[in-house]
């Protein structure tokens, strides 16, 4: 049992952990990793995700395409008649950028508003 094997296993574990949460933004993933005893950096997260994308593209995947955001009229939220136009647009934006990132943005906004009202 050499140190090299331990390092490789740890790296594999980090990559596996990162790829398990594709929708979390890197800053959230760093915090989640820390809570699970895994030391991560945002730069490392970007590299692992990029390397994984390239590996998929070169290992027989014909085309790695980015999803284009849906228009407001195409999302399921737009069919909710009890919502105002602003609420439907907000929900569509949440769908476009992802729930985790939306939650992080709203948490920052809430803190900013709380500091103003105090």
Describe this protein's structure:
- The protein is an all-alpha fold.
- The protein has 2 domains: 3-58; 72-117, no CATH class.
- The chain has 5 helices and no strands.
- It has helices spanning 3-20, 26-35, 42-58, 85-97, 99-117.
- Helix 2 (26-35) crosses helix 3 (42-58) and helix 4 (85-97) packs across helix 5 (99-117).
- The longest helix is centred in the C-terminal third of the chain and has 19 residues, at 99-117.
- Mean pLDDT is 76; it is low at 1-9.
Concise synopsis of the structure shown:
The protein is an all-alpha fold. The protein has helices at residues 3-20, 26-35, 42-58, 85-97, 99-117.
Task: Offer a few descriptive terms.
65% helix, single chain, 2 domains
Briefly note the structural class of the backbone. Answer: mainly alpha
Output the helix-strand order. Answer: HHHHH
Low-confidence segments: 1-9
Question: Which percent band covers the strand fraction?
Answer: under 5%
**Largest β sheet strand count, sense and barrel closure:** none
Question: Taking all residues together, what is the mean pLDDT?
Answer: 76
Distance between the termini: 58 Å
The figure for the number of domains is 2
Amount of helix: 55-70%
| Overall geometry | flat
SSE diagram, text form:
Layout lengths: L2 H18 L5 H10 L6 H17 L26 H13 L1 H19 L1
């Amino acid at each position: 049992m050499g140190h090299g094997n331990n390092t490789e296993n740890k790296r594999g574990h980090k990559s596996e952990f990162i790829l398990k949460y594709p929708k979390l933004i890197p800053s959230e993933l760093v915090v989640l990793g820390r809570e699970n005893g895994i030391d991560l950096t945002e730069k490392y997260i970007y590299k692992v995700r990029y390397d994984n994308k390239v590996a998929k593209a070169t290992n027989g995947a014909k085309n790695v395409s980015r999803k284009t955001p849906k228009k407001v009229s195409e999302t399921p939220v737009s069919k909710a008649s009890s919502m105002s136009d602003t609420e439907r647009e907000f929900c569509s934006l949440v769908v476009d950028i992802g729930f985790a990132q939306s939650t992080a943005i709203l948490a920052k906004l809430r803190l900013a508003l709380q500091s103003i009202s105090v």
